[in-house]
Amino acid sequence: MNFDPHAFKECFPLFAQPENRDLVYLDNAATTQKPEVVIGAIGDFYRHCNANTHRSSHRLARRATEMVERVRRQSAAFLNAASAREMIFCRGATEALNLLAYSLCSELRRGDEIVISTAEHHANIVPWQMMAQRHGLMLRYVPHVAGVPQFGRLDEVLNERTRIVSLAGGSNALGLRPDLADIGRQLRGHNLRWIVDGAQLAAHETVDVRAIGCDFFVCSAHKFYGPSGIGLLYGRESLLRNLPPWQGGGEMIARVDLYASEYAAPPHRFEAGTSPLAAIAGLGAALEFLTACDRAAIATHEQSLLSELHRDVAALAGLRLLSQPRDNLGIVAFALEQGSPTDLMHWLDEKEIAVRVGHHCAQPLIRAAGETVTLRASLAGYNTREDIEALLNALRDYQSFSGSAVDTPTLSLAGDWDGDDLSGLPVEQLAAQRSWQDRYREVMRWGRAIGRKPAIRRPENLVRGCESDAWLVHRQRGGRHYFALDSDSRIVKGLGALLLSQVDGHSAAEIRARDLAGLFAELGLEKHLSESRSNGFYALLQQVLEYAGRAGSA
Ligand code: PMP
Questions:
Q1: 94 CB less than 6 Å from ligand 1?
Q2: pTM over cut 0.85
Q3: How does pLDDT run across 418-447, given as a tens digit for each residue?
Q4: Separation of CA 85 and ligand 1 centre (Å)
Q5: Where in the chain is the domain with CATH 3.90.1010.10?
Q6: Distance CA 360, CA 173 (A)
Q7: Which CATH superfamily is domain 5-26+294-402 in?
Q8: Is 166's C-beta closer than 6 angstroms to any atom of ligand 1?
Q9: For residues 542 and 552, what is the distance between their CA atoms, to the nearest angstrom?
């Protein structure tokens, strides 16, 4: 293998910017970084041949048209389509799937069936749900175990009413890469259209739509080092010829009369309006860039990082791995046994490590796996062993930091309750921390002062505007205001502890007189914390002021 990820990384100018020198970018399933050639091609298009395509015939328009049709041919080669006429430019995988859902379903009959899986991105679920509701169609799911589709049992949901099977060639939440050859075998002999959502697949493997044998294939350029706003829809020419268009407008017609129009032949029939021309130029550069790379070697490199990551994450206590290294396109997904995944994401962000926390637009899968959110690290060719080490070290650091927490007390808050004892939290201690990292750790440590309070975790106590759930209650005694807070997030608890240490037991006038936002800024929290975390502090502050104000100016 002669692939050097460091040399490859040098093609991507984002990593060379001073502010990104330490960046460990592990959010590639969301989008990849762009090589200089792609960025350059977009600028060059505007510099040298910006004109609208097809419509006019002057020199610039001809150049732009030639460029678009050249990239169409490159795209056909990229997916090994039989002809450029089989390649449709669209905004991305989402638009391509909506186009297919709209056009294919408009020809179906009530009661016809569509098969998808629980591992699909929302882009391959919601359009089918919409069309099923509109046309009275039936949605069926591939049998699954805890959300993980059992593609080997696909034939259990196929029957004579199945008209469409639309499945991801790789899951963006777990990386799971089904055996497309086996799926093809199970579909053989059925009168249906097979769609492969290749948004993740095309980023990691060389795709051959003819070898796969699918009818349609969709992908987004931004997942494979190309620009955003442009994607590809491959369709078998014989099928495209008979497929109705989904959007009307310029470019997609042969002739327009007052009450009806004649449509253009594919692919233009499906490209109404002006295409994102600069993005198409960027896509062309990305395809050239990929063609010049040893893609098999990049895949081997990614797979080797992936196994290492799985092996080492599995060895960490307190994490639950959801992905598995086999048949995986490059994703490690895990949940936390305790605590807030958002805290961990911010902890990693503090160390310049970009991962994603959330449902990854795959809610049915994440929910069936028994979680609401997961953390996801996703790989690309420019990731290095050092990136993996940085992530693992940061995870270990977080584990030992949060594992060292003494169990926080559980407060029942019955009757004339007392909140947490915050007397041991002098602000000076926070201010004394010299580096931002140390101050951040100190805020996290303060979070331990806030005990668990299951009784207040009720919708009416929820503070709106916090990224992680936070519950705040208030009571007044003898003209003084008392508060109690709970949250799953240590950082929210820490910020809450800072706030409450300044207001708990004070009168409304004293609370109002304090410049708490000023204190927050003075401690450097506003500057260093992410906007969502700062907003969480301000939301808590707002709620405190409201409680104190509502209770009168005692
Ligand atoms: N399908 C899959 C499997 C994806 O990963 C994504 C993007 N995360 C999409 C569809 C939608 O792609 P886009 O947002 O580029 O339209």
A1: yes
A2: yes
A3: 889 888 888 888 888 888 888 888 888 899
A4: 24
A5: 427-553
A6: 6
A7: Aspartate Aminotransferase, domain 1 (3.90.1150.10)
A8: no
A9: 16
